[in-house]
Amino acid sequence: MKITIIGTGYVGLVTGACLAEIGNDVFCFDVDERKIAILNDGGVPIHEPGLAEVIARNRAAGRIRFSTDVDASVMHGDVQFIAVGTPPDEDGSADLQYVLAAARAIGARMNGFKVIVDKSTVPVGTAKRVSEALAGELARRNEAHGFSVVSNPEFLKEGAAVEDFMRPDRIVLGCDDDENGQRARAMMKQLYSPFNRNHERTMYMDVRSAEFTKYAANAMLATRISFMNELANLADEVGADIEYVRRGIGSDPRIGYSFLYAGCGYGGSCFPKDVQALIRTASEHGHDLKVLNAVEAVNERQKNVLVDKILNELGSDLTGKTFAVWGLAFKPNTDDMREAPSRPLIAALLRKGASVRAYDPVALDEAKRVFGLDLSGTAEFERLSFQHDPYEATEGADALLIVTEWKEFKSPDFGRLKAQLSAPLVFDGRNLYEPSEMRKQGIKYTAIGRGRVL
Ligand SMILES: NC(=O)C1=CN([C@@H]2O[C@H](COP(=O)(O)OP(=O)(O)OC[C@H]3O[C@@H](n4cnc5c(N)ncnc54)[C@H](O)[C@@H]3O)[C@@H](O)[C@H]2O)C=CC1
Ligand SMILES: O=C(O)[C@H]1O[C@H](OP(=O)(O)OP(=O)(O)OC[C@H]2O[C@@H](n3ccc(=O)[nH]c3=O)[C@H](O)[C@@H]2O)[C@H](O)[C@@H](O)[C@@H]1O
């Protein structure tokens, strides 16, 4: 099938590459000339395991190409995926300007039946607005081509995006009931049939329910995390260990083990913005989503939990102290720094007078860029440095802080750490180590919700 992908970010690029991998003819369009130039030079602008290989294979086979040519992109695809960003607006609602710009670009050029797929995460009612934008452009041109807008939200996780796309838990398709909607549904069914393998994973529903499903999924996952973080803070107070509690409740299949890890808060480009957007949608309909408001508030507080523990241990003036920070990306296996808990943590330490030496296996360039945007020109920025080796960061530091659970941090050389740190202090925002083992190593270890064993 001929597919156009509009927006070559995390979702668009993975969608395009994976659809090419199963034999489709894919045209990836972006307005960002820099990204397209990198892709046309054989590079990949983001770090996503396995993606470079899939792109290289399909480029060599002639099944995927990258361009900033909007006319060619609209001409190419019978199916046009909109995978542009939907960042939060000032009031927390999803900013739809890029989605609607993409819709208008299609409407201004289409010359035959098209299926337009909303892949971006968009609030209930957006497909209707996309339809109106397309119809408006067609009316302006005095042309009447058929089209249908399908909602096909994406559930992939960064760091495992290719794997998630190729082996989805489910494919949600929201289609209209009219003739064009049925035609679109048949095309989408054919497009996704290779992913269904042994049983049908595709779920058909109306467009609004599909749009809502995406927000409900992210809101539920964020809720589990904030719930566990709140209990972890209580565990610290009452002298229980949240790791035992996690295992104890996860074994109940009605609860399950996934997404029960307490930590220093959830980040990323999606949970924070999608929780906010759902709260905003609700308030537009006169509803106050009490649970989700609490989920967000708990997460905001949780991003400070490591700073609180440090101040508790070292006192409120951190002038002259140096902290090594391991892990900057919002989660492992990505270079994405959007809403990363490392950002407010490092900013707070710098504000308190400390120096920070930061290390991340892949996010250093992106970290330099975002901290430059956040802090450049300030006195604090002078006290922030980036290291290319984890032990360069810890040499002579007053404490080590762990913010992202990269695999390479799971089994460090504790002897070396202890010898390097000016005092053997580790503050772990991701509960990577066994407290009893740390005690044996002679390291003072503070984690999240592990009060009983400390
Ligand atoms: N990042 C993730 O893990 C997931 C993201 N999503 C959703 O998918 C959407 C995209 O997210 P990301 O891929 O992370 O965003 P991104 O920011 O990585 O990429 C968006 C791309 O769209 C391009 N773009 C903007 N306006 C355009 C236009 N008019 N025409 C062509 N290209 C345009 C930008 O230049 C950029 O390259 C968002 O709605 C997000 O919530 C959904 C599931 C997972
Ligand atoms: O809509 C989206 O963009 C995506 O958002 C999340 O994916 P992602 O943001 O890539 O990463 P997650 O693995 O969900 O982690 C999000 C944050 O939660 C934190 N987290 C996760 C799990 C956990 O148990 N505890 C916890 O603190 C992570 O450290 C990270 O900061 C969802 O998991 C995807 O299904 C969804 O498609």
From TrEMBL:
Would you indicate the residue range of the signal peptide?
none
This entry's Enzyme Commission designation comes to 1.1.1.22
Which Gene Ontology BP annotations are present?
A: polysaccharide biosynthetic process; UDP-glucuronate biosynthetic process
Q: Which reaction does it catalyse?
A: UDP-alpha-D-glucose + 2 NAD(+) + H2O = UDP-alpha-D-glucuronate + 2 NADH + 3 H(+)
Q: Which positions are catalytic residues?
A: C270
Q: Does the keyword Transcription regulation apply?
A: no
Keyword field contains Oxidoreductase: yes
Q: In which pathway does it act?
A: Nucleotide-sugar biosynthesis; UDP-alpha-D-glucuronate biosynthesis; UDP-alpha-D-glucuronate from UDP-alpha-D-glucose: step 1/1
Q: Which Pfam families match?
A: UDPG_MGDP_dh, UDPG_MGDP_dh_C, UDPG_MGDP_dh_N
Q: Which family does it belong to?
A: Belongs to the UDP-glucose/GDP-mannose dehydrogenase family.
Mind telling me what this protein is named?
UDP-glucose 6-dehydrogenase
One term of GO molecular function: NAD binding
Instruction: Identify the keywords attached in UniProt to this record, alphabetized.
Output: NAD, Oxidoreductase
- The record places domain UDP-glucose/GDP-mannose dehydrogenase C-terminal at 324-435
Species of provenance: Chitinasiproducens palmae
Q: Where does substrate bind?
A: F155, L156, K157, E158, K214, F259, L260, Y261, A262, G263, G267, K331
Q: What class of enzyme is it?
A: oxidoreductase
> What InterPro entries does UniProt report for this protein, alphabetically?
6-PGluconate_DH-like_C_sf, NAD(P)-bd_dom_sf, UDP-Glc/GDP-Man, UDP-Glc/GDP-Man_DH_C, UDP-Glc/GDP-Man_DH_C_sf, UDP-Glc/GDP-Man_DH_dimer, UDP-Glc/GDP-Man_DH_N, UDPglc_DH_bac
Q: Which residues bind NAD(+)?
A: D30, K35, T86, T121, E158, K273, R338
Q: Which residues cross the membrane?
A: none
